[in-house]
Amino acid sequence: MEQPIPKIYDAAQDFLPIQGTDYIELYVSNSRQAAHFYKSAFGFQSLAYSGLMTGRKDKESYVVVQDKIRLVLSSPLQPGTDIGRHIDEHGDGVKVIALWVDDAEKSFHETVKRGAKPYMEPMVEEDEFGTVKKSGIYTYGETVHLFIERKNYNGTFLPGFSKWETSYNPEPVGLKYVDHMVGNVPLGEMNKWVEFYQDVMGFTQILSFDDKDISTEYTALMSKVMSNGNGRIKFPINEPADGLKKSQVEEYLDFYGTGGVQHIAVACENIVETVTELQARGIDFLHVPTTYYDDLIQRVGEIDEDISDLKRLGILVDRDDEGYLLQIFTKPVEPRPTMFFEIIQRKGATSFGKGNFKALFEAIEREQELRGTL
Ligand code: FE2
Predict the structure, then answer these.
(1) 342 CA distance to ligand 1 centroid (A)?
(2) Residue 230 has what pLDDT?
(3) Domain range holding 252?
(4) How far is the CA of 265 from the centre of ligand 1 (A)?
(5) d(CA 82, CA 59)
(6) What pLDDT does 266 receive?
(7) Centroid of ligand 1 to alpha carbon of 16 (angstroms)
(8) pLDDT score recorded for residue 211
């Protein structure tokens, strides 16, 4: 089941070398208010802006940053735009998972040659700070991957954006980088997208879970985790499995209308401090029953953290052969029960918290029950 990422990674053999997640763009109904939310509640910092003030008439975008994580929040400025249609169909959600590459043109041709559907032909953007090359392909649903080549650019974000300076700058909460991003796809499509990441993007499957691993009395899902060669990009892909009632993946698909990003997992270095701060700033998390902590040490062994802190905050723990991890999940951050965030701290573990799935899904089902969608 588990295949570790090859220890020897040869970039020269990788037809799609990726340096990391460049940015994540969300299409939202009110980018200005969303930016305020991500700053105030999640501790992101103002970075860049594009819109009426920079001469752009159709779209307003705010870019916020925390350590290596950049979010672009975009809304339409006119009726009849593709962003407006996207929001109408899917609600607020992730449109672009941008990947930082050394060669945007090669990334495009290598993936399109292997079957990717083009989204953006290779193009060059330029301003006084240099040039950026971009290209893009579709992945599941309406989600796209942009390839961003920025080695000849030293501006704030991208050409077309101006630096966003403001006197309102809440402190960061310690979020460091994107650990993984999970996609939900319709029943029967998981293997198609696993093959897409394998054949078109050169990723490897590193883990898989089936309904025996991930099921409760009512709901189930199946999941396979895809990683690129150097391990910097990890994309688990979920599909619903049969259960007595509607699974959380089905609920997502009903409200999103197609496959899409289910959660963005962001890593931190002190989860107790980070989650304490996030809760103080009003972020709602899923809570597991306090009985989860009764036999925690028997299940996961000794850990550095104080169990009473984890119990107070609702932080979960899981162990694999390489170490342990701590994680917690927010409730959806938009009106539809679709996208949410995971906060994760890895202490050696390279897995995704399989041991927590059951407790977690029962917590999600309690929420579904309240929404009347179970
Ligand atoms: Fe996750």
Answers:
(1) 6
(2) 93
(3) 175-371
(4) 6
(5) 10
(6) 98
(7) 24
(8) 65
**Distance (Å) from CA 366 to ligand 1 centroid:** 19
Q: How far, in Å, is the centroid of ligand 1 from the Cα of 360?
A: 11
pLDDT tens-digit readout, 329-338: 999 999 999 9
Task: Find the 202 Cα to ligand 1 centroid distance in Å.
Answer: 22
CA of 179 to the centre of ligand 1 (A): 8
Q: Do 145 and 195 belong together in one domain?
A: no
How many angstroms does the Cα of residue 275 sit away from the middle of ligand 1?
A: 16
The DSSP secondary structure of 39-82, one letter per residue, reads HHTT--EEEEEESGGGT-SSEEEEEEEETTEEEEEEEESSTT-H
Q: How many domains does the chain have?
A: 2
CA of 47 to the centre of ligand 1 (A): 26
Q: Tell me whether residue 8 is in a domain.
A: no
Based on the fold, state whether residues 114 and 202 are members of the same structural domain.
no
> Are residues 151 and 259 part of one domain?
no
Stretches where the chain sits below pLDDT 70 are: 1-8, 211-219, 244-245
Residue from 327, 323, 321 nearest 347 by CA: 323
Give 39-95 pLDDT, tens digit per residue: 999 999 999 999 999 999 999 999 999 999 999 999 999 999 999 999 999 999 999
What does the block give as tokens for 81? 């735009």
Q: Which residues, in sequence order, are bridge partners of residue 342? A: 265, 329
Same domain, 119 and 179: no
CA 296 to centroid of ligand 1, rounded, Å? 20
* Helical packing angle, 357-371 and 248-256, nearest 10°: 50
According to DSSP, the residues that pair with 69 across neighbouring strands are 66
Tens digit of each residue's pLDDT (9 = 90 or more) over 122-140? 999 999 999 999 999 999 9
Distance 181 CA to ligand 1 centre (A): 7
Cβ(284)–Cβ(331) below 8 Å: yes
Q: Where are the strands (E) in the chain, listed by range?
A: 18-27, 45-50, 59-66, 69-76, 93-101, 118-127, 130-138, 144-149, 162-163, 175-184, 204-209, 220-227, 234-241, 260-268, 316-320, 323-329, 340-347
pLDDT confidence of residue 360: 78
Q: Evaluate whether 83 touches 93 at the Cβ level (below 8 Å).
A: no
* Distance, CA of 16 to CA of 12 (rounded, Å): 10
CA distances from 145 to 182, 311, 336 (A): 14, 38, 23
Asked whether residue 35 is domain-assigned, the answer is yes
